C-alpha cells in the first residue's frame, strides 16, 4: 500500500491536516522524517522542491505550529546566506506517534498480528487497532528509508502491506523488484533486516537470462564497488544462499557472489536480526540500521549500469581497462563487420560474445563455428531433402515421398529476423574460427551484400533466386586464430570488408583476475611466468604463436600448480607450434617453470 495513504489514514489528525496530497501534510512529514534533528524552512524548501519556495512552505508550517503539530526546537542553524534559521520538529504530544521507534511489546504485538493473519488466535478489538497503528508507524520507516536513499544518491521505493505480517519492502526505483529487494519485518524475534536476490531459473527464459546476466555483472564488480556488502559481512550480517539442497553461508562478499553465478537455482540472502531489547534500545535509531542495508542498493545500481553500459560490460567481463573497452565500442558503432584476430587464449570469442550481449538482447544473438566443410548451403540457403505425406485426404494407403526444399541457413534466418525487428533492434552474428572455412564458397554473393547494405543494394540468391539485402541493424563479428597455419588467413577482399581488431596476450588480465578470485601474489607470479615464456616463444617463432593469458585464468591454479598447467595445456600447444623441433622445449619449460 502507498505509505502516505496508510500513515494519513491511521496516524494523522484529520482535523489538523486534511489530506495526504496537501502541502500541509508534506511539510508535516518532512519534519517528522528529520526526527530529533528537525528542519529549517530553507531545508524544507530543498527537501520538498516546493514551487514558490519559502513563500509556499512558511504558511503551511505556521498552520502546523498553530495546531501544535510542530514546535520550535529551541535551536537555530545557519542558512547558505549565513543567517540563522529556526529549527522545527514535531510537537511533543505527537512525536511518539510520528516517530518510527519500537519497544519490546511492539515485537510481541507484531507476532500476534502475524499469527492471526495465518489462522492463529484472532486479535481483540484493542489489539487490532494497536496493530494498525504499529503497521502505520512501520510505514514511517519506509519514509526514512527513502530519505536515506536520496542522501546516498539512490532513489528508493517502499511499500507496506495493509494486512498480514508487519513488513516493509524496499527496492531501487526503476530496478527489478523480483530480482533484488530489501525488506524489514517486525515479529516476536525482533526486527529482521534482509536483502534477497531471487533465483535465476524461474522458467521464464528471458527473465532468467537477465537475472543470470545481472548476477554475472555483480560478481564482476570491483572490490570497491561491492564494499557495502563486505562491510555488512564484517559487521556480523549473514550472507547465504538457499536452494532445494538447503542453506549455505559464506564468510566474504566475493565468495557469496561467485556462488550466485555458479548456480542459478539458488536464491541469495543478506540478513541480520535485532532482538527485541536491542530494538527498544535503538529507538528511532532503527532507521539508521535500515540505512546500513540501503547501502547495498548502490551495488545493485552498479550491476544494472554495467548491464546497460557496453563499456562497463567489457571492463567487467574481460577485465580490460576502460580506454580499450571504449575504443572497441566506438569501432563497433562505426563498422558492422569486425574481425578479432590473435593467438589462441587471448579472449577473442569471449570478447565477441560480451560485446554482442552488451549491445543486443540475447535472443537476437547467434553464434556459429566455421570448419572446412562449412558451405553456402549451411550459411545462406540450400536444397535439403524432406519426407512429405502425399496421401490424398481420407486415404489409408502409405504415401510418404521424398522432396527437396530450399531451406534458409543461419545467416539468412538472422537477416529475416533483423529486417522485421521492431525499432531496428540490433542483431549479432558471431562466427568463431572464421578462417577455417572456404570463405568465398560460404559467402558467395554476400561479399557484396555485406559491404553495400540496404534494400537499394539487393542481390539475387543462388538457389531461391529471391532478392536479398543485409540490413543496417545486423553486426557480424568473426574470430581468427592467427597461430593456426593449417588454414589460410583472410585475403585482401575479405579484410577490406572487416575491420580487424588485434588481440594480444594481456598480462594485466591475469593479475586483475587473480586479484579478484584467488590472490594478488598468485596473479603476479602467473603473469611473470607467462611473460617470460612468451619472450622465448616470440624469439623462436613469432607473436602470432604466443601463449594466451586465458590458460592461466583459472580458479584452481594454486591447487594444480604451474607444472600441471605446463604438461596438460602449454606443452601440447608448443609442440604443435614447433612442428617437431622438440629440442627447443627444455628451454621453454625452464622459462615457464624456472625460479623467478
Write the layout of secondary structure elements.
Blueprint: H1 3-11, H2 23-33, H3 41-48, H4 54-66, E1 70-78, E2 84-90, H5 104-117, H6 125-151, E3 156-160, E4 166-172, E5 180-187, E6 190-197, H7 205-220, H8 227-234, E7 238-243, E8 246-250, H9 253-262, E9 267-274, H10 276-282, H11 286-294, H12 297-308, H13 310-318, H14 322-334, E10 337-342, H15 348-359, E11 365-369, H16 376-379, E12 381-389, E13 400-408, H17 410-419, E14 427-432, H18 439-443, H19 446-451, E15 459-460, E16 467-468, E17 474-481, H20 492-497, E18 499-502, H21 507-517, H22 520-540, H23 557-578, H24 585-593
Parallel strand pairs: 10-17, 10-18, 11-14, 14-17
Antiparallel strand pairs: 1-2, 3-4, 4-5, 5-6, 6-9, 7-8, 7-9, 12-13, 15-16
Helix pairs in contact: 1-6, 2-4, 3-4, 5-6, 6-11, 7-9, 7-12, 12-13, 13-14, 13-15, 21-22, 22-24, 23-24
Quickly list its features.
single chain; about 600 residues
Oligomer: single chain
Global morphology: elongated
Put simply, the count of helices is: 24
Largest sheet: 7 strands, antiparallel
Which residue ranges are poorly predicted, with pLDDT under 50 across at least 5 consecutive positions? none
Q: How many E-type strands?
A: 18
Structural class determined from secondary elements? alpha+beta
Termini Cα gap: 65 Å
Report strand %: 15-25%
**What is the residue-averaged pLDDT?**
90
Give the strand order, joined by hyphens, for the main sheet.
3-4-5-6-9-7-8
Our Rg estimate from Cα atoms comes to 32 Å
Helix content: 40-55%
